Amino acid sequence: MPQAQEADFPSDLAGASTRHLRILCNRTYQLLDLDRPALETRERYDALVEELTRRERDAVQRGGVDDARETFRDNALFSRFELYRKGIMAGYVQYEMRGGDILLLHAVVDPKFRHLGLEPVLMQAVLLNAHRRRLGVVPCCPEALDFLAAHPQFLSLLPAQQRRRFRVLASGSAAAGQERR
């Protein structure tokens, strides 16, 4: 697999398509989850993120993208992750730290922003932040559970016992959904 990764990694990131860079970024992100990722994996991931960020910034400057981008931050004082749009808090996820785990307690999106579909953006930002910080994720709120059910690629962030519990809950809710039909 490492040889395939090297053959697939372009020598000039500026010449690669944005779609290809995003695919490589996702693959490299998965390689970082290995117990002992290769040293160059982190460098490649950082280079990919930097190039994608540069392209996004350039698109905003050209006016090709909505300049009312979201801003995400961890507000440790209030123990919540916050998502801002045009300088206004659009939503947040309340959390609690327990050892190396982060418990996602409650998610709120302001009704004025619900039509923009920001809840998945917020949840993804929270999970990526937890991954970057190497924290286990314990979903306690329905919004986090629903997001994880719809995006199983993030299940690796759950501690092993939580993953088993989540699969049981997910299969039970799927069965309940089938019974209602």
Automatic annotation (TrEMBL):
Domain (N-acetyltransferase): residue spans on this chain: 73-159
InterPro entries: Acyl_CoA_acyltransferase, GNAT_YJDJ
Organism phylogeny: Bacteria, Bacillati, Actinomycetota, Actinomycetes, Micrococcales
Protein name: N-acetyltransferase
Any Pfam family matching the protein: Acetyltransf_CG
Ranges in a coiled coil: none
